[in-house]
Design brief:
heterodimer, A: 151 residues, mainly alpha, two-stranded antiparallel sheet, 2 strands, disordered N terminus, B: 375 residues, alpha+beta, 9-stranded antiparallel β-sheet, two-stranded antiparallel ribbon, 45% helix, 15% strand, globular, disordered C terminus, copper ion binding (chain A)
């Protein structure tokens, strides 16, 4: 890391003006704080000009290369391949092990349980074990009923 | 809702170091970045989309219990000086201040919590506390976050965590930082070594105005860089451990300086006092460096106990926008330097000169001559 000594005015001259320091990493990544790009074409085709484009917000691969930021949360799926390269060396790991939004945790546990029960149901049906299948079906219905999931 | 003038009138506890030992660690700060699932990120959204996001965010944020009777304002309704004052108080970021349409700030009346709406992310919420209290700051903020998560559809991915505009914030969206005052390490030439070590373990060190190992007023900010792959608890624990170690080094350096070279220390503090008491024109850099020595002098017993608070209030009040707010008009840099000097002189008016034979906190008096009666 190159050490520089900056007073307030020098810092401003060089564009290092965030007293919170929080956006330094962003600055190093070559982003442009405060940049504002207006999207006129949303829900655009997935490919445009040979590059990837986010179907939700129209953000392109070219935009990502230019600003090193994303256009919306859906972009993380669209540019998943590129993301691996971007994340390398940036973080301690590549999997989230922290907090989960309140309410989402219960939902995730429930979804996982439903997935498990459905798999067991398929197995039971395939094995013609109809008694077990009926029990599993009841349990699945019960969970779906409680959480307002239909089907 | 609270008016701007009322918000600014009363400094927060963390600005005056109230109820905390803040002689080395001035403040602890936690920031969480959050976004809504179905809206484009603020930097990419159209004006209409940003307005729609704000409509969705603002009632949820204003409805939080601690925000009741707080301050809430769209940035386009604040003057540039008002915005700058909030930046100087670390209540909003410079980037947020630069945004106009569709951005807002919601600040708790004690200024412990502030939430930036449509900054780089839809929501950037922060908690500031005096001293080393990262964990407490996180717990308070996390409770607000939990409440908001019930009301707002956050953009979250089980593998990648909270989805943020910039991948540098991905995962926890957590930036934890502390502002440290390290004159002992600077005066004893150990600062480079210490900061290098901190950098090596993946933490970022910055001055108050940006990157650099030498900073204004011997103030340094240490924060985490990585936000993905570790839990909030792990990040905060490591940061706390490192900050405690740096603070311990700083305390040792201060004591050692006083033991090894009391004349040098007394000279620096005496000169700083002299300049601050008698300067007629002083720029921000010079003032901060001298106020830093006033702080050091206070901790080492050269001044009366409440001098630390006096110095901390000055750190905030002598900044450019605060001066302009104080004067009620736009000032040229030259005018600011004169008004800054005037404010400092008036605040230090009744502060007695430094006691050149200070008593340190542990009761020793390293500056006491071997034989008495030499004066």
């Amino acid at each position: 890391m190159k050490k520089v000594c900056l007073c307030e005015s020098c810092a401003q001259e060089r564009g290092v003006t965030d007293p919170t320091g929080f956006s330094l990493a962003d600055a190093l990544l070559g982003g442009m704080p405060g940049q504002k790009t207006v999207v006129t074409q949303t829900h655009a085709p997935v490919t445009a000009g040979g590059g990837k484009q986010c179907p939700a917000c129209g953000f392109t691969l070219e935009d990502l290369r230019r600003v090193r930021r994303f256009g919306c949360s859906e972009c993380y799926k669209t540019f998943n391949d590129e993301l691996t390269g971007i994340l390398r060396g940036m973080h301690k790991g590549s999997l989230h092990v922290g907090k989960v939004p309140k309410g989402l945790m219960e939902q995730q546990v429930r979804d996982q349980r439903l997935e498990e029960l459905r798999a067991r149901l398929d197995q039971a049906v395939a094995a013609e074990n109809y008694e077990e299948a009926a029990g599993l079906r009841d349990e699945i219905r019960q969970i779906e009923l409680h959480t307002g999931i239909s089907g | 809702m609270m008016r701007f003038s009322t918000l600014i009138k009363y400094p927060a506890d963390w600005m005056t170091g109230a109820n905390a030992d803040n002689s080395v660690v001035l403040t602890s700060r936690i920031r969480l970045a959050r976004n809504l699932r179905d809206e484009p990120f603020p930097g990419w959204a159209t004006r209409e989309q940003r307005a729609a996001t704000l409509e969705e965010l603002r009632p949820a944020v204003e409805g939080l219990a601690p925000m009741k009777d707080g301050f809430s304002q769209t940035l386009s309704d604040l003057s540039s000086v008002q915005k700058q004052v909030l930046v100087e108080r670390h209540l909003i970021s410079r980037e947020h201040a630069a945004r106009g349409d569709g951005s807002a700030a919601v600040i708790e009346r004690r200024q412990m919590y502030s939430l930036m709406l449509n900054e780089e992310d839809h929501l950037r919420m922060q908690a500031i506390r005096p001293g080393l209290e990262l964990r407490e700051a996180y717990e308070g903020l996390s409770a607000l976050d939990d409440e908001l998560a019930q009301a707002l559809p956050y953009a979250f991915d089980p593998k990648l965590g909270y989805l943020t505009t910039c991948p540098t914030n991905l995962g926890t969206g957590l930036r934890a930082s502390a502002m440290l005052h390290l004159p002992g390490l600077v005066l004893s030439d150990q600062i480079g070594q210490v900061l290098q070590a901190v950098n090596k373990i993946g933490l970022a060190v910055r001055g108050i105005y940006g990157e650099g190992t030498e900073s204004l007023g011997n103030l340094y900010q240490i924060s985490n860089q990585s936000t993905l792959g570790e839990s909030e608890d792990t990040i905060i624990r490591r940061l706390e451990r490192v900050i405690s170690q740096v603070a311990e080094h700083e305390r040792n350096a201060r004591e050692k300086l006083l033991e090894d070279d009391p004349d040098m220390v007394a000279d620096k503090i005496g000169r700083a006092y002299g300049v601050l008491r008698h300067a007629w024109v002083i720029d921000s850099k010079e003032a901060l460096n001298h106020v830093s020595l006033l702080r050091l002098g206070s901790d080492l017993g050269f001044f009366t106990n409440d001098t630390m608070r006096l110095a901390d209030a000055l750190l905030m009040d002598i900044q450019p926008a605060h001066l302009q707010l104080h004067s009620g008009r736009k000032l040229s840099p030259e005018e600011r330097d004169a008004i800054r000097a005037e404010i400092i002189r008036s605040r230090l008016h009744s502060l007695p000169p430094p006691d050149i034979r200070p008593t340190t906190r542990n009761g020793d008096n390293p500056n006491t001559p071997e034989t008495s009666g030499d004066a």
